[in-house]
Amino acid sequence: ATSSSSSSDPGAGGGERGAREGQDYAHLYVFTAEKGGMAGCDKELQRKVIYELSQGSKHFEHARQQDVKVDRRIEQMRAALRAAPPQQRAALGRQAEQLKKTAEAQRDLSRWCCVVDMDMFYAAVEIRDQPSLREQPVAVGGLGMISTANYVARRFGVRSAMPGFIALELCRRQGVELHFVRPDFTKYTAEAQKIRDVIAEYGQFEAHSLDEAYVDITDRVRSQAAKVAASGGGGGGGESGEEAEVDGEELRAAEKLVEEMRARIKEKTNGLTASAGIAPNFVLAKMAADERKPDGQFAVPRRREPLLAWLQPKALRKLGGVGKVTEKMLQALGAETIGDIIRLQADVLLALPGQRSEWLLSRALGVAPCTLDFHDEGDGTVRRKSISNERTFKDKGDSEELLALLRELCTELAAEMAKEGLSGKTVTVKLKHATFEVVTRARSTRRWVATAEEIWEVAQDIFLRELPCQLRLLGVRVSNFRNAAGPGTDDPQQAKLARFFASGASMSRAAAAEEEAAPSPSPTSSSCSAAAPSSVPRRRRER
Q: Which of 37, 90, 122, 495 is a plausible cystine mate for 154, CB 3.0–4.6 Å?
C-alpha cells in the first residue's frame, strides 16, 4: 500500500518554537534514538515533527509526567551529591575500585560469542519479493506503528517503533513518499526458520527475535584453529609468542566461520543479508553487530586495552540495558560516553546505589556473561527466569473481550512451556492502561502450574480484581520454575559437583549462566541446540 499526507507546514515562528520544544522533549520517545542507517538524517526536523504531531496525546502526557518524576529524582540525586562530605566520596571511590577489581576477576576472554542480526529483516523480505520497492522509502506496518523501515526510509528519519503517521509526515516534508507494506508474520517466521537452520550448524544458540540470534561458536572456532595448527600453519617463538599465535588462529577461524555463516544465510533466503558481531561475551557481540551494518561483520579486540579503547568512547545508549531514564540520570552527572561511567564512578555509586551501579561499572569495563540462557536438557536445570506472552492493541475496555484475550494468552504460553517441560509457581499479569500507566500483579501458588487451565485459573483471578479498566496491552508471565538454578551455581565446576553428589549420577553436561543484572534489550528469546533446533518461537522469554 502507498500513502501520502496533506497536512501543511507550520509558520516560521511556530516552526522555530516546535524545533526548540521538540529538542526539549526528544528524549521522551524511544524512536528518536539513532538506529543503523540514520546517521545522515535531519534530527532537528525529526524532533520537530514528532513534537508537533504528538503534543496533547495520551502518550505524550504520560511520558511528560514520567519525565517530571525523573527530574525530581535527578534533583534529589544532585542534592545528595552536593551534601556528600569528602570522606563519603573517598569511601565511594574505594568501593568503586573494589567493584572494578571484582569485575576484572570475572573477565573471560576465552569464549567466542557471535550475534547475528538480520538487516531490516521484515522490509528486506518484502523488498526481495517486490523488487520495485528497492529504491523507495519503505516501512513495514501502518499508520499506527512501524515494525521496521528500510535504509532508504531511515535516511529521512523513519525507524522501527515510530508511529506511521509521524513517519509519513517526515517523508512528506522532505519531498518523498513513504510506502507502507502490511506485515506478513507467517512469511517472516518461515524465513526465520531457514536462518536458524543454518545457524544451528555453528553452535548452540538462542533467538532473541525473528531477526536476531546469539550463537556460541567457541567449539567450532577451536576445532578449526586446531586443524590449522596441526597442518603446520602458524607457530611462534616462546610461550607468549605461541599464545599470541593461538589467539590469531582462533580469530581468523572465527571471522571465516561467521563470514561463511552469513553467506549461507544469504544463499538459503535468496538474498537476505545478515550483519554479525564477534566478541568474548554476548553484550559486546551485540554492540559489534551494529558496527558494520548492513551486510558486514566486526570482531571486538581480544585484549583488554584495545577492547576498552573501542568500547568506552561509545554513547551511553549503545550499552544494552541503558534506556532513556538511566541515560538522562547519567547525563545529569556529566556522563555522555560509556567511559564516563568509569570516570565518574564515585558519583555513579552515590546516584544509582545497589546492583544498578555495579552492573554499569562492569559493563563499562566490557565484562558480561558469555553463556547462553537456556533449558539444559542434560541435567534438567532451568536457567531462565521467566517466560511470558503479551499483546498490544487499540484501547479496549470490554471485560469479556479482555478476558477472552487473557485466556488466549494463557493457552499460547502453556504451549510454549510444554515444548520445554516447564512448570512454575508464580503467575504475573501485566496491564498497560489507556493512560500508558503500566501495572503488574503477581501471585505465587503452592502447586506447580503448567497447563493452560492452571495458568488461566490464577491469571483470571488476578485480572478480575483490576476490572473495570481501559487497556492497550495485556500480558501474562510464569516464573519461579521447577528445578530453577539457584544461588551459587554460577561456577560450572561447582554446579557439576553439586549435581553429582546430589544425584549420585555421572555428570553428562554442565552449563551455568550468570543472570544479567539489567533486563535484556531484546524482547523475544528461545534456546536451541545445534543438534535439534526448535521451531521459531513467538513468546517472550525474559532473562
A: 37
Cβ proximity of 47 and 19 under 8 Å: yes
Return the residue matching grid coordinates 517472516. 188
**All three cell numbers of 486:** 539457584
Q: Supply φ then ψ for residue 389, to 5 degrees.
A: -145, 130
Helix axes 86-105, 355-364, angle to 10 degrees: 60
Cell of 10: 507550520
In order, the DSSP letters of 25-57 are HGGG-GGGS--TT-TTS-HHHHHHHHHHHHTTS
Stated as kind and residue range, the H or E segment containing 152 is helix 151-154
Give the residue among 373, 476, 486, 374 at the shortest CA–CA distance from 426.
Answer: 476
Which of 169, 191, 212, 516 is flagged as catalytic?
A: 212
pLDDT at 74 over 50: yes
The DSSP-derived string for 308-327 is HHHHTTSBGGGSTT--HHHH
- What's the chain's Rg over C-alpha atoms? 25
Residues 6+ away with beta carbon under 8 Å from 270: 128
Contact yes or no for 513/369 (Cβ under 8 A): yes
Q: What is the pTM of this model?
A: 0.72
- How many other β-carbons are positioned within 10 Å of the β-carbon of residue 534? 16
Q: CA-to-CA distance for 387 and 482, rounded, in angstroms?
A: 13
**Which are the contacts of 106, defined by CB distance < 8 A and separation ≥ 6?**
362, 367
Q: How far is 9 from 170, CA to CA, in rounded Å? A: 11
| Spatial contact of 358 and 446, defined as CB atoms under 8 Å apart | no
What is the Cα–Cα distance from 543 to 529, expressed in whole angstroms? Answer: 18
How many residues are there in the chain? 543
How large is the average pLDDT for residues 133-162?
92
pLDDT tens, 435-483? 888 899 999 999 999 999 999 999 999 999 999 999 999 999 999 988 7
pLDDT(122) > 90: yes
- Annotated active-site residue 97? The verdict is no
Q: Hey, which residues does 214 pair with through a beta bridge?
A: 115, 206
**Cell 526548540 belongs to residue:** 20
Q: Which residues pair with 275 in a beta bridge?
A: 117
Integer Cα distance of 334 and 319 in angstroms = 17
Closest to 452 measured CA to CA, from 479, 400, 481, 413: 413
Contacts with 302 (C-beta within 8 Å, 6 or more apart), sequence order:
109, 247, 251, 280
